[in-house]
Amino acid sequence: MGTLVTLQLPPGSPIADLPWVVTIGALGDPDEWDPVVCGPYERDHALALARAVVADDDLMAVVEPLQPLDGVEAIRREIELARTADFSDADTGAGSSAAVPGAPPEPGEVRAGWRRIAAGILTP
Questions:
Q1: Which of 66, 89, 91, 99 could bond 19 through an S-S bridge, CB–CB 3.0 to 4.6 Å?
Q2: Contact status, residue 16 vs residue 45, Cβ threshold 8 Å
Q3: In a domain, 52, yes or no
Q4: Looking at the 3D structure of the chain, how many domains does it have?
């Protein structure tokens, strides 16, 4: 059995609506092979796909939001926010989410999610 790592989000977090990526790599020796990055997915799809992939293999999957930032200044602002963030009251519990759906989505469901992601990115 592998490991799934993701952010624990509070209910209603706007981060949940961002596109999400899944990075899958070796659970043991990180130099064994290069990690595979997949996505973007809707959060529930990313979690379910990652969980299904690591369920029967010694792999690690990291599921994290992808921030579609539109330029250098937007990226720099996000870096500055990250550098100055106060995590002193943050929940330090890592690991998988209890809200992970049981079955991974079918390819048609994933493609429908991509259309929703694209529409959300293209809408100002």
A1: 66
A2: no
A3: yes
A4: 1
Write the pLDDT tens digit of every residue in 73-122.
999 998 998 898 776 665 544 444 444 457 899 999 999 999 999 888 87
Is the pLDDT at 17 greater than 70, yes or no?
yes
Is 93 contained in some domain?
A: no
CB of 4 within 8 A of CB of 50? yes
Q: Is residue 120 part of a domain?
A: no
Residues forming beta bridges with residue 24, ordered by sequence position:
36, 61
Task: Report the alpha-carbon distance of residue 17 to residue 8 in Å, rounded.
Answer: 14
Q: Which amino acid is at 119?
A: A
The residue type found at 121 is I
Q: Which domain holds residue 11?
A: 1-85
Per-residue pLDDT reduced to its tens digit, 33-48: 899 999 999 999 999 9
